[in-house]
Amino acid sequence: MFFLWFYRSVCVCVCVCVGRSVITGAHRAAVASAVTRVEVLIDSFRRKQPFTHFLSFALNHPQVQQGFLRFREQVLELCGQDAGVDESIFQNPAKLHLTIGTLALLNEQEVTRASELLQQCRDAIRDITEAKPLPVEVRGIEYMNDDPSMVDVLYAKVTVRDGSEKLQQIADRLVEYFAAAGLMERERERVKIHGTIMNTLFRKDPSAEDKGASARPNAKDREAFNAKNILQMFGEVYFGAFELNSVQISQRFSTDSTGYYSSAGRVTFS
């Protein structure tokens, strides 16, 4: 695909190939202008695309999966008559995860670039974890909107067992790196890491994923549920504890041999 720009009567030809742009021109200023224009166009295009990957901490440890299945069974038994509550809106236990941020990677070259960027973050991550796994606990639930009788997404709370903010620090650092590289939008100063356990998007598509904690899908795409009784009965429910030892770039709409999302890149904490 070819584009032409004119800068002070100088023609600049931009040849956009798969994964790269070739810009030629007679004057440096014209080429620099074209580079800026292409970067703006790509960034604008990326913002309009559905995300393809996301940075995640896996929560699908067997103990947490068992705790989640108990929670699901008890909610359906005790709150199954509440408006909008049914089995279809529960997360797949094998895909339980914390979302850090989403990525719209436009081609294989960008997937490779994102994977390489994650590897470049390894030392910074291990400085935070002291090159050890993080003992984490999954306990309690929360929602984000103002009305507990009209909830679209219910989240599990995850904390580091020593009370530190190491998990938050890793998430913030990763978003900082990926946003600086132009691969991710930084929506807030501190990342809202969230582990979805119930999502009304799952009614129509069990593989659906919210764009993030601040996403606002069209109301007509989902039917909210009444979470008042769930929050009252299970507000401090214990799902389990385990040692978290990695962060990965997860591919949307994919499944690996464990039932979790396929990885396009991973860094371990130890």
Notable characteristics:
Cyclic Phosphodiesterase, Chain: A, four-stranded antiparallel sheet, alpha+beta, 270 residues, 30% helix
Provide the succession of SSEs.
EEEHEHEHHEEHEHEEE
Number of domains: 2
Look at the structure and name the CATH superfamily of the largest domain.
Cyclic phosphodiesterase
Annotation field: number of helices: 6
Cα-atom radius of gyration: 21 Å
Q: Stretches where pLDDT falls below 50 for ≥5 residues? A: 212-217
The end-to-end span amounts to 45 Å
Structural class, please? alpha+beta
Strand proportion, as a percent range, falls in 25-35%
- Overall 3D shape: globular
List the helices and strands and how they pair.
Layout: E1 2-7, E2 10-17, E3 20-24, H1 28-48, E4 53-58, H2 62-79, E5 97-103, H3 108-120, H4 122-129, E6 134-143, E7 153-160, H5 166-180, E8 195-199, H6 228-234, E9 238-244, E10 246-251, E11 263-268
Helix pairs in contact: 4-5
Task: Note down, in words, how this protein is organized.
Helix 4 packs antiparallel against helix 5 (166-180). The strands form three sheets. A four-stranded antiparallel sheet has the order 5-4-10-11, with helices on one face. The chain has a four-stranded antiparallel sheet with strand order 8-7-6-9. The protein is globular, with a radius of gyration of 21 Å. 30% of the residues lie in helices and 27% in strands. The protein has two domains: 2-47, no CATH class; 51-268, Alpha-Beta Complex (Cyclic Phosphodiesterase, Chain: A), CATH 3.90.1140. The longest helix is centred in the N-terminal third of the chain and has 21 residues, at 28-48. With 270 residues, it is α+β, with helices and mostly antiparallel strands. Strand 1 and strand 2 (10-17) form a beta hairpin. It has helices spanning 28-48, 62-79, 108-120, 122-129, 166-180, 228-234; strands at residues 2-7, 10-17, 20-24, 53-58, 97-103, 134-143, 153-160, 195-199, 238-244, 246-251, 263-268. It contains six helices and eleven strands.
